[in-house]
Amino acid sequence: xxxxxxxxxxxxxxxxxxxxxxxxxxxxxxxxxxxxxxxxxxxxxxxxxxxxxxxxxxxxxxxxxxxxxxxxxxxxxxxxxxxxxxxxxx
Length: 90
Known about the structure:
4-stranded mixed β-sheet, 4% helix
């Protein structure tokens, strides 16, 4: 099972809470695993978490999205168009 890596950096200064982040899945095949690393914090260097998705759920899509809502000192991530199979919070 090939693993395809994607990284998205949260930049609250350039996007609003209602703006979704896009993840490209055009190169993901049915037998692949997509591993999404989400970075944030000052300078976008802090790893917020790693999320994995089955290729079979993404293979026929061009992309999916997620939104980030800031709630006090925490951030809540909502996925649109795909559901993760593994979530690793750092």
